[in-house]
Amino acid sequence: MELIMSHKTHLKKTLTALHIWAMGVGLVISGDYFGWNYGLITASPVIMLLVVAAVGLFYLSFIFCYTELVAMVPNSGGPFSFVSAAFGHKLGVIAGAVTLIEFLFAPPAIGLAIGSFVHYVFPVFNAVHVTVAFFIIFGILNFTGVAFAATLELIVTLIASLVLVIFFGATLPHVNIANILSSPALESSVFSQIYSALPFAIWFFLGIEGVAMCVEEVKNPEKAIPRGLITAIITLLIFALTVIVCSTGILPSSVLVSGNDALPKVLAAISSSDSWLTLMMIYLGIFGLIASFHGIIFGASRQVFALSRARLLPHSLSYIAPKLLTPVNSIILCCVIGVICALSNQTAVLVSISGLGAVFVYALSLAAFIKLKLAKKGAHEHSFKAPFFPVLPIVTVLLAVLICGLMLLADIITSLIFLAAVIIICIFAAIMYFVHKDKTIHEDLH
């Protein structure tokens, strides 16, 4: 498809606090439906619960800092813009690269889960082929404009949340605490279980920072973003812990780890495979996957848009459709890359790579927050202030660095793929920068 050129690079302000909540929860809620269960391959249910609780508290402290950071640098570039404002564009490019990797590798993983759900109901459909079809459908839907995209995200997020609440109500009475406390026969040590479970614990929350990439499209961002983001992370923490309890309290890990359909298996165990509960999870549970799939494509396209506007990717990618006011070429690119990644059919690897990108983003963003706050740099005065500064962000950034190290050690092959992708994007961005060095990169930050 030929890319179209234009100089118009301004987005339309449409979103409210409710949209921010829906975007925050919607970006992440697929993590409750699939992906997390792969952590049970190498970790016991108790270790998984403890790691998720610890990661959830990390995210809560991160979101407090991140919310103020978004108010200080209200730009659709997200971490790229934050880090560039704090440390200069060289480190900003690295932040942009790892953010791009996080948001490009997550949609194909979610798409494969959607394919698995559809294949479960209609075996005639190949899961990978369904994934490709969903990329085409939701690429087109993202063309239609931010108002429609945000409304769609709100609707599917509400449906996905309702399905989880019904799941909790149906399964909690059947939970056997002894099942959770009984550790499977794992060869790995407790320490090994902890760091191998990290990518899958992060999957419960991964992507919530993508809300920052729609900040230029938010009405009254100083009030809407804090309300929406903090409510979203609390919602997600409650969902994550309850999903693990309701699943591991009913079925053994050996059953839950096979495939992307853990929750339908749990409901089938307490009723039957053709009960209304199981069928509801299959038919309506797909909305949870769609919410994240749609939202992360939205976030990824805005990151590509910001890097293109800064002349670090081809400038045609920052084209804004005149009537729809959406970055159509960025959306096309994200969907094409997503399809290529989905063809690998390696869900666990895609989850791990996306998780690595996320924790690098968190470390860099928190460091930028500390630097900007100490330097008192910000676009304007903002009402929201993160509590316990500077202790909270310093402790949180140290935790992010620790998590980065543990995840890099957990899977060397995946880590090498991730680092290679970062290097390739940075080299390409450097080439683009020198080609367009007469165009200042800092124009994107104002």
Write the layout of secondary structure elements.
Elements: H1 17-28, H2 30-33, H3 45-72, H4 79-87, H5 89-121, H6 127-143, H7 146-171, H8 177-181, H9 190-202, H10 221-248, H11 253-256, H12 262-270, H13 276-309, H14 328-342, H15 347-375, H16 391-410, H17 412-435
Helix pairs in contact: 1-7, 1-10, 1-13, 3-9, 3-10, 3-15, 3-16, 4-5, 4-15, 5-6, 5-13, 5-14, 5-15, 5-17, 6-14, 7-10, 7-13, 9-16, 12-13, 13-14, 15-16, 15-17
Write a structural description.
The structure is a single chain. With 446 residues, the protein is mainly α. The protein has a single domain, classed as Amino acid/polyamine transporter I. It is 70% helix and 0% strand. The protein has 17 helices and no strands. The protein has helices at 17-28, 30-33, 45-72, 79-87, 89-121, 127-143, 146-171, 177-181, 190-202, 221-248, 253-256, 262-270, 276-309, 328-342, 347-375, 391-410, 412-435. Helix 1 (17-28) packs parallel to helix 10, helix 3 packs across helix 16 and helix 13 crosses helix 14 (328-342). Mean pLDDT is 86; it is low at 1-8.
